[in-house]
Fold this protein.
Amino acid sequence: MVRRYTPAEQSAREAHLERFLQSVEDELRELPSSRKDRRAARSRVTSAFADFAKCCLDLDGDQLDLLLHDGFSSISTQLAREARRLDPAVSAADIFQASRNAWTAVGLQSLMGLRMRLTPAIFAYSMLYPYTDNYVDDGSTSLDFKLAFSERFRRRLEGSAVAPFNEREAKIWRFIELIENQYPRDRWPLVHASLLAIHHAQEKSVRILRVDNLSAHADVLTLSFEKGGASVLADAYLAAGSLSPEEARAAFNWGVLLQLVDDLQDVQEDLHEGILTIFTESVARGSGLNQVLDDLTARTLSFGCRVMKQIDRLSPGHSAVANAVRNTDSLKQMIRMSYSLLLVWSAGESARLFSSQYISELETHSPFRFACIAANRKKLARWSGPLNRLFESFLEDEEEDETAPALVASFLLPRAAQPATRGGAFSAFERSA
């Protein structure tokens, strides 16, 4: 759990938050039109975000460098430009979704003592799921056609020579080919087994995870763990090719934790759409009463502490340079902070499902009061289009190697404006089957 904040500390951080949001809003009023203007705007946004992260989230210099200079920001830029070279029509929202997965994969590289870089396999895996999500979410195609695609997709992941049905499938097949080129099947069987494992886990969740399926006694916990764990385990194999048992266990459990965080973030939407998770199951069995999620959220936070102990035991190795060790330590601190704050903020957003005492306790671990977060939510919802356009403008300068606005947009965009991060090729099926 993150540190506690006094009401005075929360008030001071809320003032910093308001200044940061105002600075971003100022940039969105008029997009920069020249390279000079874009460079100046990029500098202002980066500086404003750094000040916000330092003052509100207590990030230090090493952590800010890792976010804005040494790793994640440049990964986003490289991914965005490579995606545009392959498909000029790919949307900024798809790039944001792919970037979030790529950040997980390159983070695993750092945790395992490898240089953080966007490899062809990481790029391809990160792009697979925006494309497959878009494919199965197309309202103009039937459910039977989408299920047929799922079967063809599985066979292609198995290595079969499946002809693409159309241009969209040809692009998806191209991403699989990029993975095959970096990791030939005969030499890296576990890499390809990990891709099939996440596909299989998602298939099972589509068949079973519905709130109206409670009477079937589905093992929701096992299915959720399998789906989330398999997703990040695939990231780890694509990042490193081979894993030690300790690395595989830490990656799988990190994926489980991310799945649980996502499920709590989405609990109200999932309840509305009938998606079965351990959180919606608890609400359904508790007849919608408050405090039904107190114990489950507390256990999730406790599970996160155990996962962090496993991640802490991962080491970049004795041969790693001092800078790599420092980056890894900074990354571990940010992972610990991010999952804790996301859980706390997600609980605050669904306060009616918790006891007032538990919500009050959680709020002391947030740098902002929940009322402040709620007050800014509607404002941020209006920013998705302008933020996307600002991000697009920065991509126009090919020689630039930073796009801090990608990080800013991912932080600012409300949940409803962001694609699913863990659902993969089957998130649309889960919401329509």
